[in-house]
Amino acid sequence: MDAIAELLIREAERADLPAIIALFANDQLGGHGDTTESDAFGEYLAAFDKIEASPLQVLYVAVLGGEVVATFQTALHTSLSGRGSSSLVIEAVQTREDMRGRRIGERMMRHAIAAAREQGAAKVQLTSNALRSDAHRFYERLGFKRSHFGFRMPLK
What we know:
Distance between the termini: 43 Å
Number of strands: 5
Largest sheet: 5 strands, mixed
CATH class: Alpha Beta
Number of helices: 6
CATH topology: Aminopeptidase
CATH superfamily: Gcn5-related N-acetyltransferase (GNAT)
Strand order of the largest sheet: 1-2-3-4-5
Shape: globular
Structural class: alpha+beta
Helix content: 25-40%
Radius of gyration: 16 Å
Strand content: 15-25%
């Protein structure tokens, strides 16, 4: 099956949450503490509600054969630097392990880039775990350039 032809990218719905959560929980490298345990569902639901209520954020899913096989999120960020330019930030990119290598990620990134253009963003940016060398090659193949070092400080 040609994933590029059959793939549907759409805004996530509440009913997609179990599949999205499973994508993150199955990520052995991410280390975000995601879980499919039922007692954590309320936290995911609260986050979904915040994202859905924000006019500047969109959570997407990629659907193939009626199943959610990938997800990503975008947020439009405007700064005074760059003469008040906006950046579309791509976050939480995850493709189901058995679906990798089918150009699903490429389709998602092209969708995000098109959304950035529609919103008048000056650039698209993302961060990627330093251990994800395959992902880094993927992003570079799509035209992303390594430009900054990232820093993080956990607060909880």
